[in-house]
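ARCHIVE CARD
Drawer: 12
Card no.: 0347
Subject: one protein chain, sequence and derived structure
Cross-reference: see card 0346
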Amino acid sequence: MTGPLVVVGDVLLDSDIEGRADRRSPDAGVPVVDVRTGIWRPGGAGLAALLAARDAGEVVLVGGFGDDEAGHRLRRLLAGRVRVAPLPMPGTTVCKQRIRAVGPCAPVAADGAADRPVSVVRVDSGDGRIGHGPLPDEVEAEFGCARAILVADYGHGVAAHPGIRALLGRRLHDIPVVWDPHPRGPAPVAGASLVTPNRDEAASLVGGDGGFGDRARELSRRWSARAVAVTLGAEGAVLYRRGTKGTVAVGISPDLRCGEGYDVCGAGDRFAAAATAALASGDSVTNAVRRAVDVAARFVRDGAVSSLGMGEMRADRTVVAAAPSRAADPPSWV
């Protein structure tokens, strides 16, 4: 089937500030980070769309964009990489800012590595959320010609929009629909081809002493999903397909397995995007999950989001683990 791969969800603006932490602030004892580098990149569904474009060629991103500097920056970062079908969004763009450092006053990496930046703090800002108003005609048209759809839910309203859910319901029987859920988001639409909760999400949704295969089976029943793949980090994933008795454990090749301490930011998006692209090309769900585990493992090994090389910031400031001055703006130190 021809047509674009459509990614629908909450679009965020992410930034990473990296430097050295050789001293502590005398008033609070927190690390003082002397900034060396910084980058901007699309986050949330924006990141999922960029990653999907590596596998699927033409990608359309359906998501909300704020009319503020952060929203305009997002548009510039995405331009020429994916096509955007915007949803109106009141409020300010949601921004996630990570401050990461190496040095004697930085946190110690889980694997003891001293040369790998570790997050000191994450600062979230912005209050933008999609309402329940009518959808633009362009959005309905993109859903109608999609060859596969990935819902990248980040809990800010897009996946809960009644119109979006209705459009998804119309396409479920024609094309693959993959749903990457979020703890603050709604349940996936019934009948999704594949739902991809991570280990923590699956454990919070299904308690008890059962393994993750049992949790995948229960979530498939609860969501009426055709398949559920619980991602397990360095352990790969476990897949349950509706109508089968057992589960499939998909491991990571030993040469791709990374220990604790590696940056895994974006690994879930990489997994979901690769699985969607594989399903769009005609792969079975089992092969799609195997492909996604391999692709996500390579992504983490190669530096995760740090390997994307998006817009660079000016690195001419010192940061004392401080939040942006106004929620409406991107980080104010630039």
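Annotation on reverse: Helices lie at 45-56, 69-78, 137-145, 162-171, 199-205, 212-223, 267-280, 285-301. Residues 285-301 form the longest helix (17 residues).
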